Every structure is written in structure tokens, then in C-alpha cells.
Amino acid sequence: MNNMALWILRLVIALLGILFTLIGVQFMATPEVAGLTMGLTPTGPTGISTLRADIGAMFFGFATFIFVPLFIGRPKVFIVPVTLLTIVIITRLLGIALSGDINPEIVRSLMVEAIAIVVFYLGYRFLPNKAA
Questions:
Q1: Which end of the chain is more exposed for a tag (fewer CB within 10 A), N or C?
Q2: Which pLDDT tens digits describe the chain residue by residue (132 residues)?
Q3: Could you give the CA distance from residue 10 to residue 4 in angstroms, rounded to a whole number?
Q4: What pTM value is reported for the model?
């Protein structure tokens, strides 16, 4: 990959990292609103706490495993979001198979997750390793 392509790849990875961070922030700040955008309705303090801690933390975890390898020059760490997003897609497809339910939001989520896997794999494969 040439230098321009590597910089574009870094930019796309950074934008995905920002997206995951913003989703995490939304779940921390307004879990009820964030939950509704993803089809989740919390019931009481336990539901709100679950949205903040479980869902919000998941997105912050993804952001961590996006920004850390990007900024410290260890692209092999991108295998973590590749693996986790693959599990997400498999689970989502299993859910579709079990329930028979599919809608445009589910398809959109699958597309975003698949694109993110490709981008992170490209980072894993082509970004230079700066580790000593």
C-alpha cells in the first residue's frame, strides 16, 4: 500500500474510533435515548445501569482497541475488534435465523459491522508495526 492509501486507512480507522467513542458517550450520558435508537428500552435503574455499564462500556472497549493500535503503532492489536465484530455478526445472524425477524435497521447494522471488520483487517494487515 502506498503512503496516501495508508493515511486514508488511518483516517477511516480514526473515524470509526470516534464513532464508537461517541456511541459510548451517548450511552453514558443519555442511556434511555441511546437505548431507544438501538431498540432497547430500559426498565428502572437496573436497566439504565445496564445500558451505561454493559453497552456503553462495550463501545468504549471497542474504541480503546481501535485507538491504541492506531496511535502506538501495533496494528496486530486490530485483531481484537475484528474478532469481536465477527462474533457480533455471527450472533446477529443467529438471532435472525432463530426469530425470522429482519428489518432495515438490522441490515444497516450488519453492513456497518462488516465494513468495520474489513477496515480493521486492512489496518491489521497493512499498517506498519512501530514496536521495537
A1: C
A2: 899 999 999 999 999 999 999 999 999 999 999 999 888 998 899 999 999 999 999 999 999 999 999 999 999 999 999 999 999 999 999 999 999 999 999 999 999 999 999 999 999 999 999 865
A3: 10
A4: 0.91
CA distance 31 to 127: 35
Listed in sequence order, the residues at least 6 apart from 122 whose beta carbon sits closer than 8 Å to its beta carbon are 9
Q: Which domain holds residue 22?
A: 3-126
Task: Judge whether 132 lies within some domain.
Answer: no
First vs last C-alpha separation in the chain: 22
Q: Does residue 131 fall inside a structural domain?
A: no
Residue 131 neighbours by CB under 8 Å, 6+ apart: 72, 73, 74
Do residues 2 and 18 lie in contact, with contact meaning Cβ atoms separated by under 8 Å?
no
Q: Is residue 75 in a domain?
A: yes
The three cell numbers of residue 66 are 481501535
